[in-house]
Amino acid sequence: MSHTYLDPLEQSWIKYYSNIPENVKINQTDFEILWNLHPEEKGKVKIMGKQLETPRWQQAYGISYSFSGTVNNALPIPPMIQKFIDWANLKEDSDDIFNMALVNWYLNGDHYIGHHSDDERQLIKESSIYCFSFGADRDFILKNKTTKENTKICLNDNSLIIMGGKCQKTHTHSIPKRKKINDRRISITLRKFKNIE
Question: What's a BP term from Gene Ontology annotated to this protein (predicted)?
Fold first, then answer.
C-alpha cells in the first residue's frame, strides 16, 4: 500500500488498509470481549471552560492521555490490545515504539468524535498513528486546516488507517454522526508517547 499524500509538498500522508492481515483481525467473539471492556461512564472533555461528556466511551491503556483539558487515566494493556501494539511495532521497524492505546466505543451513528488533531505534547513529533476499526462502517473525514478541503474514507470492519508525516499539523480528522447507522464500532488507536507522564 503506497502513501496517499494530503498536501502538494507531500509532507502529510495516510495509508488505508481495508483488509488487515489475518493475525490481527478479530471475529465476533473477540468483538464482544472488546466491547465489554468499555467503561460504565463516558469520558469528559473541557471546551471553553465547560466540562462536557464525550459522545462515546473511551479508555487509555499503557500511558495516561491528556487532551482537551482532561486526563484519561490509563489502565494496564490487556493481551487482546497488546497484540495490535506488538504487530504495529514489528511493521514500523522504528527505534520509537508504540506504547499506548486509546480505545473508543461507538454504540451507533449517534456516537461520534468531532474534528481534532492528535497533536498532544506527549506525542513523539511526527510519529505515525495507527487506527484499527472494527464493527460498523463509519466515515473518516480529514479536513485541511488551510483550504478546508475534506477527504472522506469509509473505514470498514477489520481495517487500518495510518496517519503520518505532518498530518496532525496540516489536517484535522473526525468520525461524524450518521443517523442511519445502528451498529456498534470499536476503534483502537496506537500512539508513540514520550516516556514521561
Answer: DNA alkylation repair
Q: CATH number for the domain including 99? A: 2.60.120.590
Residue 172's nearest CA partner among 123, 115, 126, 130 is 115
CB 182 within 8 A of CB 108: yes
Average pLDDT, integer, range 168-172: 94
Measured CA to CA, the distance from residue 146 to residue 89 in angstroms comes to 32
pLDDT of residue 2: 61
pLDDT score, position 196:
57
Compute the chain's Rg from CA coordinates.
Answer: 16
Residue 197 has pLDDT above 60, yes or no: no
Q: How many domains, in total, are found in the chain?
A: 1
Range of the domain at 165: 4-191
Predicted pLDDT at 14: 96
Q: What is the pLDDT of residue 156?
A: 98
Element (H, E) at 88: helix 79-92
User: At how many degrees (to 10) do helices 79-92 and 28-35 cross?
Assistant: 110
DSSP three-state, residue 87: helix
For cell 478479530, name the residue. 26
